Amino acid sequence: MPSPEHHYQRRSETPTTSPHLQAVITDLAVYYEVNLNQADARFNFVQPEQEKQWLIANVDGQHIDVARCPVKIDDFTVPDIDVLLAMTPNGWQTRKVLFTDAVWEAFAKVAAEKGQPAGDPQENVPFGAFTEYVAHLIENELRLEQAREAAEVKAGLTLD
């Protein structure tokens, strides 16, 4: 059953490049040995015992979709974050974003801490700042994964 939380979907009227998100996703694709330049290429990653996973896909050979969804996939899964990026010669450009109220509140809090206006989720979404926020969310999860892996290695060395 879909979440009762409100979802916003906004399309970018002007091309907004997303270099940080592009770099994070391309680095992840290299790590997972996925060629995101190929249509239908996809991968996902999730932290152990987490409720959310990131799904990254080249949907048609020209667009990359970055979505955060529940780990338990039912017949109908709605992401709380979904960013559609066009692959252009000038870099990946944000075309569409989807987010929930909770995601927007968290984004607005981070933006306020940086002294940046968050905009209005219904009218004025700062696409560049929002994709930067998404890139940081993914990087934070990667840092947690690296720390967990390092702890497992250290524990394994102690047992030997």
Quickly list its features.
160 residues; alpha+beta; 6-stranded antiparallel β-sheet; 3 helices; 6 strands
Structure explained in plain terms:
This protein is of the alpha+beta class and 160 residues long. It has one domain. 37% of the residues lie in helices and 30% in strands. It has helices at residues 19-31, 101-113, 127-159, and strands at 7-17, 42-45, 52-58, 63-70, 81-88, 91-100. The chain has a six-stranded antiparallel sheet. A hairpin with a 4-residue loop joins β3 (52-58) and β4. The longest helix is centred in the last third of the chain and has 33 residues, at 127-159. The N and C termini lie far apart (47 Å).
The low-confidence runs, each spanning 5 or more residues with pLDDT under 50, are none
The rounded distance between the terminal residues' Cα atoms is 47 Å
Question: Which structural class best describes the helix and strand composition?
Answer: alpha+beta
Radius of gyration, in Å, reads 17 Å
Report the β-strand fraction as a percent range. 25-35%
H/I helix tally: 3
Overall number of strands: 6
Largest sheet entry? 6 strands, antiparallel
The H-and-E topology, N to C, reads as EHEEEEEHH
The geometry reads as globular
Question: How many structural domains does the protein architecture include?
Answer: 1
Spatial ordering of strands, largest sheet:
1-6-5-4-3-2
Percent helix: 25-40%
